Amino acid sequence: MLSALDFETLAAPDTGAADRTDVACFIGCVARRDGGPLPPAIASQLERRGWHARLPGISQRRWETLWHLPVTVDSWEAFDALFAWERRELVAGGGAACATYLGAAVRSYFAAGGRRAVIVSVGAPWPYLRGADREQRRRARLFQLLPWRMSSGRRPFDPTAPAHWRGVEHLYGLPEASHLCLPDLADICAAEPPPLRAITEPAPAPEVFVECSHDEPALEQDQALHRLPPPRLEPDRDDDGGSSDAANARARTWTEAVNAACGFLAGYRRDALFVGALPLPGRETRHGPVHAQADWLGYLQRAGVFETPAQAEGRHLPEDAAVGAASAFAQLAWPWVRSVRSTDLPGHLEPADGLLAGLLAANALARGTFRSVAGQRLPGVVEPVPMPDLGLGADSPTARLARRVCLIGPEPEGIVLLSDVTSSPRSGWRQGGASRLMAALLRAARRIGEEQAFQPNGPVLWARVRGDFEALLEAFRQAGALGGDRREQSYQVRCGSDTMTRNDLDNGRLRVEVTVLPANAVERITVALGLATGGRVQDAVGEVA
């Protein structure tokens, strides 16, 4: 018998944290847990951001469902109280349900050490066993995530009309978010899973060897979801002959979406990174293997996700190393993982983007965002699936893959992140810590630009800006972010008549050239920053010297 009820009001987090480098933004499909008016703390948080139920374009339904509205949560409990993340129907109208991929990613993010996340729901999740395979529906879902690039008319993004922002466009108004995650992307781009006659019928569990662990609970067995296949890049059942071309088309769609996300970051949020998970490959068909598991990087190159070595040599690469799935704006995790938390997902597998984002957030808080997270243990992970083939030498397919993706694999102390890299084709931008360092510098540059926005553009301002940047970079050097024995080796700052043209001066633009040597790097990175009207950082380009 209940004797008392305790109610706890969740405090609305402070959203003014533009200098933080540990906040991830998760955009995807999840519904509110309960209908009706918003909790006062959430309504107050949105109003402090400038969102109001009375704004043109904000309908009552949008306000109450929180669709396409950014909500900040500081704990898993706060997210769980607000969103019905575990209520995704397996079949339309059926009683069985699984977790949403967005909910699973946020759960792993906080489990790995994340402290703050921004959630943007783009709608309710669709049933897992229905409708994910039709191109029209696929495009409609991608449009909700990436409206400015995933539409036939290339819908323009209007930074001045926040009420019309959708999906990733919200990142423009979230200066505190340093990482972008789209947990539903692999599911949207995958083929529809085959129908299962009775997913709720129990089946004998196969005997598997699992390494003993004293600090992790035993993996709970849910055979219904274990038998349900996870999303894969394989042909649909109605694809003619089940050819691998259909699977490659899935990979190209996924790549197009990642290219759109990274393109938005390059155009509007160059101080943020996309943290994603490579999708699961297709399985073998009667026409042969859809992919070569022994050379996953080779498959990605053939599918157009990454360029081949010949393509990389035969074309000009932009200074900041291409904008897309293969770029300094992306850190991609591989493979998927089976964890103590993933038993409510199809196949008991989850993509590792939430885990990687949480690891990066915890690292930024404890050690500095510029430090590598390679070698860090992944909490609660039982095994990576598929298991990477290790121990074949420094030039093996797996070793080459680890130079382009954040590879997860076994070590004596448990399952760890074996590599911390971006997917950039250029070695100077390859280290994850170096790319995150440059993002942190861009954040600081934005703050410096805002402070000096209304000063006359002349020698006095140039000297002040040089001093501000040198003080900033010296602080990074003292913290261990930069290499070199002396200041001159660690960084250089140029700001004066030699960094600006007459056109720049006439139009009030101030350009600063910053050269840094990231710690443990063998190459220097030079970034030209344009501080324009209002303190905005624009036309930021980089090169490796």
Strand order of the largest sheet: 2-5-1-6-8-12-15-16
User: β content, as a range?
Assistant: 15-25%
End-to-end separation: 72 Å
**Radius of gyration, whole Å:** 24 Å
User: Which bin fits the share of residues in helices?
Assistant: 25-40%
Largest beta-sheet details:
8 strands, mixed
Tell me the total number of β-strands: 20
Structural class: alpha/beta
Poorly predicted tracts of residues: 1-11, 200-210, 216-221, 238-242, 284-292, 313-322
Mean pLDDT: 80
The number of helical runs is: 16
Query: How many domains would you count in the coordinates?
Result: 2
Which shape, going by the Cα principal axes? globular
Characterization of this structure:
Residues 1-11, 200-210, 216-221, 238-242, 284-292 and 313-322 have low confidence and may be disordered. It is built from 16 helices and 20 strands. Helix 4 (101-111) packs parallel to helix 11 and helix 13 packs antiparallel against helix 14 (459-478). It starts with 22 loop residues before the first strand and ends with a strand. Strands 2-5-1-6-8-12-15-16 form an 8-stranded mixed β-sheet, with helices on both faces. A 4-stranded antiparallel β-sheet has the order 17-18-19-20. A two-stranded antiparallel sheet has the order 3-4. It has 2 domains: 23-192 and 230-370, no CATH class; 432-544, 2-Layer Sandwich (Dihydrodipicolinate Reductase, domain 2). By secondary structure, the protein is of the alpha/beta class.
